[in-house]
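Predict the 3D structure for this chain.
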Amino acid sequence: MIKVNNISYTIDGKNILSNINLNIIRNKITVITGKNGSGKSSLIKIINKIIIPNKGTINSEYSESIPMLFQKPISLNKSLEDNFLLLSKLKKSKVNKFYFNLFKLNKLKKRKFQNLSEGEKQKVFISRLMSYEQDLIILDEPNQNLDLESEKIFFTSLSKVKNKTILLSLHNMSLVKKFADYVIVLDSGKIVFNDISSKFF
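Done. Predicted structure below.
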């Protein structure tokens, strides 16, 4: 589905990623993990063609970047419901409210987005992305600001998704162990592990 070939990326002379080679396997959950500053977010953005590497190529079925969950997603100064519907309106797609209902957001839908807690906002961002019908799902630290119950609900449901390729970055190693099919570990911008999860844990 996606093949990354010898990618390197620098900012102001600093190496962010060096000689990255990997494959994203169709219909599997691939997790990129590593310490803060290891290059996880940069790698995900490069894979999704949001930023351009200094060196290397990406062979992908996708000619353009696709919707993804950023660590700081775009929000509108409107209601929760308006923010949830933003992506479907931009993409003129049908709305799948499974995650909206899973997180019980309907009771909050008329509240101003800025008045929500950080955890409630994150649920909206996740629900918004997951409402868009796509066969590749990209999530950068999706459990950020989620309480433990919501985190469990989301990842359990994500693991049951069929016929979709899921790429995400995570810090929480217990989640990586429980849900990842493939694990990629970054350290100082270099891959130090890239294989099936059972070989890592």
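The beta strands are 2-11, 14-24, 29-34, 55-60, 68-69, 136-140, 165-170, 182-187, 190-196.
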